[in-house]
Write a structure and sequence with these properties.
The complex is a heterodimer of chains A (113) and B (111). Helix content of chain A is 0%, strand content 50%. Chain A is mostly beta strands and 113 residues long. In chain A, strands 2, 4, 5, 6, 9, 10 and 11 form a 7-stranded mixed beta sheet that branches. Chain A has a 4-stranded antiparallel beta sheet with strand order 1-3-8-7, with no helix packed on it. Helix content of chain B is 0%, strand content 54%. Chain B starts with a strand and ends with a strand. Chain B is globular. Chain B is mainly beta. In chain B, a hairpin with a 4-residue loop joins strand 7 and strand 8. Classes of the chains: A mainly beta (113), B mainly beta (111). At the A-B interface, strand 5 and strand 10 of A face strand 4, strand 5, strand 9 and strand 10 of B.
């Protein structure tokens, strides 16, 4: 069974540009979560989507946004990139209501120059 | 104060030894608890859920102490492959339903 997939693996942008990151959950999972992990730091919760709706968001500015598509895949958009947005962005999925048991993708490493 | 706190370590432990880490949480509405493991430059993976009565999975034992608001992870007969960062995760049970992640405890098993 395929796990969570994310694309691209690496993304290099310059300050002020926009980045789009994509995630496909495990088949049967309807919840998708996005996290930011800066180098050497813990996971910071960004967004949670379930059944196409945004259920919760972490303490991040509005330039971090996303959506979930009818097939439960998801996109994270980061506008007006800043240098401190450089991090590993992890996507995880779970069954609806199974927020504690999340399965992670390999991440997208975003570098902002 | 962070909502979930862990000793960052590193814990340097000889192979075969027993090691334990604790994690404290501050939100009394927390309802579920988990340990995840993250290898260097890899994604986190669920190690085990933590049940109220405590639970064991092979060499790993997890305990929950609601009165003192901490959870623990015990690893017996440690292996070199246990070297990783162990993340304590707490699911809030209040209106702000989300997972809160600790920053992790780094464990290094030495031969």
């Amino acid at each position: 069974e395929a796990g969570v997939t994310q694309s691209p693996t690496h993304l290099i942008k310059t300050r002020g540009q926009q980045a789009t990151l994509r995630c496909s959950p495990i088949s049967g999972h309807t919840s998708v979560y996005w996290y930011q992990q800066a180098l050497g730091l813990g996971l910071q919760f960004l967004l949670w989507y379930d059944e196409g709706e945004e259920r919760n968001r972490g303490n991040f500015p509005p330039r971090f946004s996303g959506r979930q598509f009818p097939n439960y895949s998801s996109e994270l958009n980061v506008n007006a990139l800043e240098l401190e947005d450089s991090a590993l962005y992890l996507c995880a999925s779970s069954f609806s209501g199974g927020a504690g048991e999340q399965f992670f993708g390999p991440g997208t490493r975003l570098t902002v120059l | 104060r962070k909502e979930v706190e862990q000793d960052p370590g590193p814990f340097n432990v000889p192979e075969g030894a027993t090691v334990a880490f604790n994690c404290t949480y501050s939100n009394s509405a927390s309802q579920s608890f988990f340990w995840y493991r993250q290898d260097c430059r890899k994604e986190p993976k669920l190690l085990m859920s933590v049940y109220s009565s405590g639970n064991e999975d092979g060499r790993f034992t997890a305990q929950l102490n609601r009165a003192s608001q901490y959870i623990s992870l015990l690893i017996r007969d440690s292996k070199l492959s246990d070297s990783a960062t162990y993340l304590c995760v707490v699911l809030r049970g209040d209106s702000n339903y989300q997972l809160i992640w600790g920053a992790g405890t780094k464990l290094i098993i030495k031969p």
